[in-house]
Amino acid sequence: MHFHPDRGFAHRSASEITPRAAYAERRDLLKLIGTGVAGAALAGWAQRVALAQAARPGTQAALPSVKSSVAGAIVMDKPTRLGDITGYNNFYEFGTDKADPARNAHTLKTRPWTVAVEGEVKKPRAYDIDELLRLSPQEERIYRLRCVEGWSMVVPWTGYSLSELIKRVEPTGNAKFVEFVTLADTKQMPGVASRVLDWPYVEGLRMDEAMNPLALLSFGLYGELLTNQNGAPVRLVVPWKYGFKSGKSIVRIRFVEKQPATSWEKAAPNEYGFYSNVNPGVDHPRWSQATERRIGEDGLFAKRRPTLLFNGYEAQVGQMYAGMDLKKFY
Amino acid sequence: MKQLLLRPAAKLVLFTACLLPFAWLFYGAWADQLGPNPAETLIRGSGGWVLRFLCLTLAVTPLRQLSGWHALARFRRMLGLFTFFYAALHFLSYAWLDMGFDPLAILRDIPKRPFALVGFAAFLLMLPLAATSFNRAIKALGAARWRALHRLVYAIALLGVLHFFWMRSAKHNYAEVAVYAVIVALLLGWRVGKAWIGARHDARQLRAPDGLDAVAHGCEDADRRRQA
After folding, report:
1. Is the CB of A96 less than 8 angstroms away from the CB of B108?
2. Looking at the domain assignment, is residue A32 inside a domain?
């Protein structure tokens, strides 16, 4: 047996996964101890652990979920503080500063909301958000998130594999790519007035990427419904690609034959490619992608940590790019 | 006002005031109050203060000549040196927090980013100015040569604004850039205008020099001439 650095959470077999019953029992036990059955010192410790596992922030409605059985769905890294996830992110429709989304996204109305699923599918239709929420069991997924700007987080999302939705609409043989169109409403989104991008924001995936079980249709964060600034009511999360590939507040999912023209590719084709897989070996033209700063985790003077190929999800997604020149298809 | 500016305590008050942004950044770093990405806050925060101090330094001479408060010139060197201080802090924050003090990484990174290259060039241009800021350096160089050298500050200001403009261009976010650009344009434009008028009126006349040592003589003469 030989040692190799962390390349993501690869389950060799299903038996390695802790069954839900086992960890639920452990949580109950911890809660019990926490109420004071055991000694005071032990109770203090147990309360903390129980809290860490069960506490919801309480700002949004709860979104119960089950643990995911998808390989790589739960990374072992420490999740980033909710305040950092909701207070520091890019969502240009609400302004280009990373504090802008938290400041401005309160104007977004997430009900009623429909997502039109259309294009090269046998069963195109418009899904109401409540219907979409119940389409498949909600799972907890703890993913790394790597921004193209060089910072990263670990986010406990709630959602289900995008493939669950795709299967239900039955793509035709012509469906080679999936295009995601997000909301662009000047009345709700002050940033849309700026010309920084060609609105609406459009992102896309190749069909096999979209069908990869790690590609997540997410509705929640930290066990609750998504906060507006993080892409409520429904967003995409593609953990092995730079964060901008994961469109927020999605209104249309279209199956197409030709590779979609995505917003960032249109804005700066030499800097942002269609694939945009996290890759420490392929630099952005203006900066290195070899390292990253983990928000809220690494101290101010800590060295930046190395970025992992496919953001550490090589075991789960690497085969999709076998034989592809990742420098050419950046 | 003139009397107030001439008081010895005035320099101490200004010195303390100039240190406040540093104290605030230092406290923020120590108390973990710099937000989710403290390194970014430090780098951008110190950079903003370079531009502000640059504008303040460049404002001294126009303000002095417009107001007639020639005692203002006493503060120009301190403001210039604080500009350099915040520029050094800005560069050090980048080199340390972003690059881990790895000289090779820095050498690879700077040419990759045109905006960083421009900022670095501005910082390098500041070095000779900071190094010749004391009285004996002025004497050793001679006032004329010293003044010529210190005109580099105009190039530094333009590079500084370009650095900021380029950095913000990634997000097309030019509101703040425009403020600095207008201020620097006014401050430099005022000098150009003055030089142009001076040259037109009398090419042989001694032009209002910018130098620190010229306060007592040249400028006042020039002002009197203008008023006449």
Report:
1. no
2. no
ipTM over 0.90: no
A303 vs B contacts (CB less than 8 Å): 100
* Residue A102: count of CB within 10 angstroms of its CB: 21
CATH number for the domain spanning A203: value is 3.90.420.10
**Which residues in chain A are closer than 8 Å to B42, comparing Cβ atoms?**
300
The structure tokens listed for B148 are 């010529």
Is A105 part of any domain? yes
Q: Show residues of chain A in contact with B30, CB under 8 Å.
A: none
Question: Between chains, do A196 and B108 touch, taking CB under 8 Å as contact?
Answer: no
| Domain boundaries, position A183 | 56-321
> A189-228 pLDDT, tens per residue?
999 998 889 999 999 999 999 999 999 999 999 999 999 9
Copy the structure tokens of residue A252. 């249309």
What percent of chain B has pLDDT above 90?
75
Taking 3-state DSSP, the helix, strand and coil percentages for chain B, each rounded to the nearest 5, stand at 85, 0, 15
Q: Which domain holds residue B140?
A: 2-227
Name residue A202's beta-bridge partners: A181
Q: How far apart are CA A290 and CA A302, in angstroms?
A: 16
User: How many structural domains is chain B composed of?
Assistant: 1
The predicted pLDDT at position B170 comes to 80
pLDDT digit string (tens) for A110-138?
Answer: 999 999 999 999 999 999 999 999 999 99
The span from the CA of A299 to the CA of A235, in Å, is 30
Contact A310, A320 (CB under 8 A): no
Within 10 angstroms of residue A238's Cβ, the number of other Cβ atoms is 29
Is the pTM here over 0.90, yes or no?
no
Name the pLDDT band for A26 (thresholds 50, 70, 90): low
Q: How many domains does chain A have?
A: 1
